[in-house]
Amino acid sequence: MTLRVTIDHIGAGGDGIAQIDGRDIYIPYSVDGDDVDIKLSGKQGRITHIHNPSVDRAAPICKYFGRCGGCSLQHVSPDYYARWKQQQIISAMGHRGFDNINILPAKVSSRGSRRRASLAVMGQGNGKALLGFTERASHVIITITECPVLAPEITGFLAPLRKFLGGQLKKRQKMKVHINLADNGLDVILETAGEPDLDLRMDIAAFAEAEDIARICWLDSKLKNPSHEILCERQKPCVSFAGRQVFLPPGAFLQATKQGEMALTEYMRDALEGADKVVDIFSGCGTFTMALIGDHAVHAVDGNLAMITALKNSAHQMGKIRALTTEVRDLFLRPLLPHELKKYDAVVLDPPRAGAREQVAEIINSPLEKIVMMSCNPATFARDARALVDGGFVMGDILPVDQFLYSPHLELVACFNR
Hints:
418 residues, alpha/beta, CATH 2.40.50.140, Rossmann fold, CATH 2.40.50.1070, 3 domains, 8-stranded mixed sheet, 7-stranded mixed sheet, 9 helices, 23 strands, 24% helix
């Protein structure tokens, strides 16, 4: 069915929304005020013709935009983009009853700064492979040769990686490639069903040498509990957190951009001035712990043994640090309890997208007086902030950190004082 509609607004997922017979229709790559023809399928619409473009519409910067599913907001003007991202915070907080919040100017990462990527690959036979990002809501792979968001070290690796995997994968054989850009090179994970044979192991080692790759690991997706097997480690990948070097375990989590990491760290340091003992909950391999251990006694807690081990081993090689203790703990099943939290002056809380409902409940019942909370999900941030404020805390200014350029995602950080 083809219909003519006018776009009302862009929703939280990045799609334009129009109303037809009282129901919302979601239309990708549209913007408020667009007068468009759409082909309708259920609740989804696809633009077939633009009669009158919105004043907020802009030309995308990437030739793959609209086919590649990596970006959803390149078609809007910079001013609209900034307003829309701020509105996502206002809306999420408003749904939880916050109607008087102060949002600081956003810290926006520059183009070409994204240091993480997960790519889809499929063999085509005859030494060729598709390698890139999938179409929106599809398994169809759009092969890319460039990307305005990714760091140049990653985009420069696409061509040799495609050529190498084209010679290794059978026709229609699928693989995922996860890449982290460390300070000393690329850290690559090849994920597919099955394990590599001896010839492939030797070829991977030769490829890593030829392309100066720091490390290549293998992840067998057929296994019930897959773990990373290091196939070639020419040098142990490392990153610097606040000037302190940490050696990364395979699959380590990094903030999406270095600029974003620094913005969050600076906010946290300012907010924790005067605190002596700090507990870093969901610490990972030390993004924020490393920025604190020079001036604070820190207890770092995370559910991932490999990341805590990396943090601990790296910290022990450094001088001029205060007391550091670590703990491996499933923080969803066993959040830190009030009697454990009472030893600290402040909490740094950086949970995954699901938020920290269980841990926040224990913090409220503890004597803690200061929390710095980060989140990559405004909705769960608002939920946890509501619980903290209802539990006796006052929320300070919210800093948006946009590490996910041209996507609906947004990082937030705020300080809460009892």
